[in-house]
Amino acid sequence: DIPSEGMLHSYLLTIIFNRTAFCPILMQKLFLSLLVIGLFLTAFIPVETQALNSLGGPIRFEELESDDNIGFDDRADFKWILFNNGTSTYTVVFGVEDISGGKQWKIPVTKQAKVLYPGDWAEIDYTVYSPKDWRGDDLATFNFVFIFEDMATGTYSYVNITKTLDIEVDLQTWDATELLSDFPFPDFMHTSWVYFSLMALFWIIVVVLILFVFDPVLREVTTKSMTEIDEMILEIVRGPILWLIIGFAIVSTLELLHLPNVVAHYLELAFSLFLIVITTWVFFNIFKDVVIFYGHNIAKRRDEEFDNVLLPVLEKLGAVVIVLGGLVFLLKSLGIDVSVFLAGMGIAGLVIAFAAQDTLSNFFSGIFLITDRPFKTGDIIILDDTNVYEVKHVGMRTTRLYHAAAHQMVVYPNNKLANSRVINLVLPDEQFKTRVEVGVSYDSDSKKVEEVLMDVACSHPDILTDENHRPFVRFNDFGDSALDFRIHFWVSDVKKHWGVRNDIRHLIHERFRKEGIEIPFPQRDLHIRSDVKTKGEGNSP
Q: Residues 6 or more apart from 388 whose CB is under 8 A from it?
């Protein structure tokens, strides 16, 4: 148990530097010179050491804390108190050496140096950390070395304390050992195999009850319910839940046999992977068969675009997210660091987003148009160019508009359409308010003209005449050649307002002819006034 020569050299260096820290500058230079000489000599002459315990020396050790068994990603704490029962002052240097060759243990670098005066005491504590997962090493052996220098004589002595740590794989299941040990069984039954048999019998009974009691009862209850969602969810989860219970039963039962670490580790890993796969499968099918199913039903009653355009995108996106989430948890369970993978995906996403920013802009604008719904298929809208369009289809990248006046199908990018001023003629409803202007001669009776125009408007079947939408006539202005009137009315369907305005003009012309109301031609009377006098008038110049 003699520490290596290199360790002693390192500890001696620590002692020397600690001591020179309290010396003046000249003394530090002297110690540094001696240090160089000492390093040269120690390269050829081994340091003379002796075991302190063999001297029955004055330093007494008392161990306050020491861990022997820990789990993965755990810590082991050690603590000692050193008492100086002698008359000399000692400098104590403490260090740790892993002599088992374990590469997965985290051993903090430390060189604790303390001064023990006669009758004084010091506390030494240290912590090591076990690997995060099993890498094939169950045991780790550490050599804790204490180097003492007698300040009076300059002699060195040491104490080695060797500690072996054992990693125990604790299966993350229900440990029934404590429960079974409290039962008043005969002594010969308190064995691992008896516990194993009893636990296996218990889980067999549980599975039988689930299959032949609980499952039929749940099926009967869900069949009598008013909705289909409980039946759909039960059909999806009943099989996976049963398999999870069976897997949990196998692992928790085998745990009672105190399996070797390697077997327990792989058993726990297999159960974790099985749990992740089953959970991912359940979420995927609930999303696909329940969420999307009800989404289609709701969309069919409310919005065709949401059903035909957005739902397929959400279905694919949700499936990808669920599968990727399950894959990430699967890789983490296997001990694979997914942070680099996720960071790479993030960088790749930024590159793709930058390269396809126009496409993504149209895509998200399409989502906005579908969810915010400023218009829908069949609506009549007016854009910034003042043209009137009928919406034919709202897609994820573009929207198709029909220009009836030119008989053209116009394809608009969604990002351009989302940033444009849109007038929806069918909102808040499909009723549309419009007007027709007409002029009559100055000889006409204005009151009679108003009555005729009201009769014409109320006689048309597509013009609303209820209290809230009754037509009205306004004597608008005195024109250059006519009295200007406007008739305002509501059309029941915005798509008919062009035809209704045409009909109203024909009816007005016909009624005016019958009533003798003249629609004058544009005319202007010129009156010329002259102040020039004729010959013979006035005084001659």
A: 380, 381, 382, 403, 404, 405, 425
Number of H helices, E strands in the chain: 16, 16
The answer to whether 128 and 95 are in contact (CB under 8 A) is no
Provide the token pair at 266: 């792989």
**What are 33-67's pLDDT values in tens digits?**
544 444 444 444 333 333 344 334 688 878 877 77
CA distance 132 to 105: 9
CB atoms inside a 10 Å sphere around CB 439: 19
Q: What angle do CA 421, 423, 428 make, to 5 degrees?
A: 135
Three-state SS for 105-141 is CECCCCCEEEEECCCCEEEEEEEEECCCCCCCCCEEE
Encoded amino acid at 425, one letter: L
Work out whether the CA dihedral 506, 507, 510, 516 comes out positive or negative: negative
- Averaged pLDDT for residues 17-28: 46
Backbone angles phi, psi at 512, to 5 degrees: -60, -35
User: What separation in angstroms does the CA of 46 have from each of 31, 42, 320?
Assistant: 20, 6, 66
Tokens, residue 434: 């419009």
- 10 Å CB burial of residue 84 (0-12, 13-18, 19+) is buried
Structural fold of domain 432-515: Alpha-Beta Plaits (3.30.70)
User: What homologous superfamily does CATH list for 5-167?
Assistant: Immunoglobulins (2.60.40.10)
Kindly report the CA angle at 497 between 491 and 502, in degrees rounded to 5?
115
Question: Has residue 16 got a pLDDT over 50?
Answer: no
Question: Could you give the angle at the alpha carbon of 120 between the alpha carbons of 116 and 123, nearest 5°?
Answer: 75
Residue 403 CB-density burial (10 A; 0-12 exposed, 13-18 middle, 19+ buried)? middle
* Cα distance between residue 135 and residue 191, in whole Å: 30
Q: Which carries the bigger pLDDT value, residue 13 or residue 257?
A: 257
Tell me the domain boundaries of the chain: 5-167, 178-347, 372-424, 432-515
pLDDT tens, residue by residue, 80-123: 888 888 888 888 888 787 766 555 677 776 656 788 888 888 88
Model confidence over 288-324: pLDDT tens digits? 888 777 777 766 666 555 556 677 777 788 888 898 8
Provide the CB-side half-sphere exposure for 232 (13 A, CA).
Answer: 15
Alpha carbons 346 and 41: distance in angstroms, whole number: 58
Yes or no: say if 1 and 162 are a contact pair by the CB < 8 Å rule: yes
Nearest partner of 215 among 246, 244, 238, judged by Cα:
238
325's CB contacts (< 8 A; 6+ apart) are 280
Say if residues 283 and 237 touch (Cβ distance below 8 Å). Answer: no
Domain 372-424 architecture: Roll (2.30)
Q: CB-based burial of residue 355 (10 Å sphere; 0-12 exposed, 13-18 middle, 19+ buried)?
A: exposed
The answer to whether 171 and 255 have CB atoms below 8 angstroms apart is yes
